[in-house]
Amino acid sequence: MDKKRRFYIQKHDATNLHYDFRLEMGKTLKSWAVPKGPSLNPKVKRLAIETADHDLKYGNFEGVIPEGNYGAGTVMLWDRGIYKNESDFEMKKAYRKGELKFHLYGKKLKGSFALIKTKREKQWLLIKAKDEFADTTKDILKANTKSVKSGLNLKEIKAK
Ligand code: MN
Q: Which of 44, 73, 125, 127 could form a disulfide with 39 if both were Cys (CB 3.0 to 4.6 A apart)?
């Protein structure tokens, strides 16, 4: 079985609010920006735009990125934990094939998810798989507006 690796989700109030979804793969964090954030509803497909790989150390970052810098705005560590590969292949191959399946063990997100590449460049879809953690009514984002690291919300992080 594949070893367990880390994942991070940062709520990022930049030019547009989005959630940065990051999966440890090799020595880096593969990253996607999810404008609408993750959903627990298996019928919902959330656009996930592939962004630059990030350093593993960046995963735990929370704070304000000053104006004029890449990603300027406020970053909250919304969730973190480990994940288990559930793809048909090892992660790097599954990534190349554009079909990642994984089980998240986060504070907020739990259960199986998939990231599926579309025909459009850098555009993937983040989809909750059907399991006991799926929920068609609960809005996980509205129910959880605080940091997993500091307990603060975006406003409080910005004012710190
Ligand atoms: Mn971002």
A: 44
- pLDDT score for 160: 87
Burial tier of 157 (Cβ tally within 10 Å: 0-12, 13-18, 19+): buried
* CA of 21 relative to ligand 1 center, distance in Å: 9
* Residue 14 identity (one-letter amino acid): A
For residue 132, how far is the Cα from the chain centroid? 20
| 19 alpha carbon – ligand 1 mean position (Å) | 7
- Do the Cβ atoms of 78 and 153 come closer than 8 Å? no
Q: What is the pLDDT of residues 40-91, one digit of tens each?
A: 999 999 999 999 999 999 999 999 999 999 899 999 999 999 999 999 999 9
